[in-house]
Amino acid sequence: MEFSPRAIFLDMDGTILNHSNRVTIHTKEIIDQLRNRGLLVFIATGRSYDEIKGVVPDGFQVDGYITSNGMAGYIGEKTAFEHSLSKELVERIIEKARENKVYYELFPYGTDRITLKQDQSYVEAEINDPKPDDVGINEWLSRKQAIKEEIVWADHIVGDKYSKFYFFARTKDHINKWKNELNLLKKEIDFTTSISSLHNVEVMVANINKATGIKQILEKFNLTESEIMAIGDSDNDIPMLKFVHFSVAMKNAPEHIKDLADDVTEFTCDEDGVYQYLRKHFIL
């Protein structure tokens, strides 16, 4: 790789996260080395900010975070920017999700994710064992953990600012039907959808994605897209991979993601692919 970036943006799930939903100590250490050499390293993830702490090693540090697919940005623990779904949209979508019995998690800023109690029975039923063969183990484990420890079963919608909606279905037919319902709703209220697997879809503010989040972060650091690279693996990374000067797809990414990238890692996320790639091109 001949390009020498000033900053690197890293996706989490399927990229620096393995399929056990962990960032390895090797990945932490390579990020530390790059930052010590003067490179800026950022996370650009579909996860909310509060979801990150539980999957990274102790002492994990980067220069900033873009979370919820571009809905919010953080430098250290300070909020750099923040977009919010409207309560009107939230209420309409929950009503539609209930009609379609779709698993959902709503992420208010500053508090735990919620699902309404009246929807608890069908939401829990979506992640009853056995795991469907074509659902990724990382997504299945995340949903199990959310049900067990992370979702607050609320009597009513809480908060007035929301970073994203996450939806999941155990069958592709169910989630595809739900995507169609969301597309119909877009004709009434404008918003953006994004997917990171064949069994999920997320809702954000209209025209928001990882690339728009990167643009806002770059302004804070006086950087341009010509100075940055990114590594990702799924559809919600496409705007980011198209935006940066040099894009890298994970070996475990689908072929259409690899086709649009400038390079592909030699190893998967379960083989410390990001660590291996960054070590080869920046340390050795």
UniProtKB/TrEMBL annotation:
Sections of the chain in a coiled coil: 168-195
Record carries keyword Membrane: no
InterPro entries attached to this UniProt entry: Cof, HAD-like_sf, HAD-SF_hydro_IIB, HAD_sf
Record-linked PROSITE patterns: COF_1 (PS01228), COF_2 (PS01229)
GO cellular component terms, semicolon-separated: cytosol
Gene Ontology molecular functions: magnesium ion binding; phosphatase activity
The keyword Coiled coil appears for this protein: yes
Keywords: Coiled coil
NCBIfam families the UniProt entry points to: Cof-subfamily, HAD-SF-IIB
Name this polypeptide is given: HAD family hydrolase
Organism: Halalkalibacter akibai (strain ATCC 43226 / DSM 21942 / CIP 109018 / JCM 9157 / 1139) (Bacillus akibai)
